[in-house]
Write a structure and sequence with these properties.
The protein has 259 residues and is an all-alpha fold. It contains eleven helices and no strands. The protein has one domain. It is globular.
């Protein structure tokens, strides 16, 4: 039981800049079932920050920019770095080996920088539209953060580690077992269902399908998964879900009124 709860400490230390007290889990993979809960924490902070800034500033776009900044600071920009590195490797290498080699370079290339700016702009646009479209729908914000962290658990469990020489995420991936993902999926479904009812459960199903597509792409282009690829998947799903929630907000608002 102690190992299970130490997994939560490891998850918090891995996915955020928070330096919580306590001992890390013996197996780093023990953190995977807790990823959705950490996503809820991040999403809760983001949701409260965005709502507060919007009411204080009366400027949706400005509040959205500051909220994205807060989200980046809370996570240490870790996933964004992996997103940029992945795009550089994917666009710059013709073989799996060359792509992985490019991703190890600490410098960000032109394609990675362009993709990073685009992702952040899309998140700002999504938040701005969400505020303008339907205030009730802002309670759905945590869904994007819960489910984007669930994605990492699924990929860690279902793909081999791509680097023969090892890397920072190797212990998460090589120690991952099927029950880690099942536990994470059940927790994510419980949290999303509590927040948004049937809408939340539909979001869980859509996220799993999107993740399976990402999994296929990663296996084909990289031969497995790495820490950068996990970060890339997190940012991709988070951005897609924020855009989807923003687009659907006017239609979801009446449903949320009765939930």
């Amino acid at each position: 039981m102690g190992e299970i709860f130490r997994g939560l400490i490891t998850a918090l230390r891995t996915l955020t800049v928070l330096r919580v007290p306590g001992r890390d889990a013996v197996s780093m993979a023990s953190a995977l079932p807790w990823f959705p809960l950490v996503g809820l924490l991040i999403g809760g902070v983001v949701g409260v920050a965005f709502t507060g800034l919007w009411y204080y500033l009366h400027w949706a776009a400005g509040a959205a920019v500051l909220t994205v900044l807060i989200s980046t600071l809370l996570t240490g920009g870790l996933h964004l770095d992996g997103f940029a590195d992945t795009v550089d490797g994917w666009r710059g290498g013709r073989t799996r080996e060359r792509r992985l080699e490019i991703m190890k370079d600490s410098r960000i290339g032109a394609m990675g920088a362009l993709a990073l700016v685009l992702a952040l702009l899309l998140q700002v646009v999504a938040l701005t539209h969400l505020a303008d479209a339907a205030h009730r729908a802002m309670r759905l914000l945590p869904l994007a953060f819960i489910l984007s962290r669930l994605v990492m658990a699924l990929l860690a469990v279902s793909l081999p580690y791509a680097r023969a020489e090892g890397g920072t995420a190797e212990l998460f991936v090589k120690g991952a077992r099927g029950w880690h993902f099942i536990a994470a999926l059940l927790l994510a479904a419980l949290l999303c269902g509590a927040i948004a009812g049937a809408v939340g459960l539909v979001a869980v199903i859509a996220t799993v399908l999107l993740t399976l597509a990402l999994r296929r792409w990663m296996r084909k282009n990289f031969g497995g998964v790495t820490g950068d690829l996990l970060g890339c998947a997190c940012v991709t799903v988070e951005t897609v879900l924020l855009l989807a929630l923003a687009a659907a907000a006017p239609f979801l608002s009446p449903i949320l009124l009765v939930w």
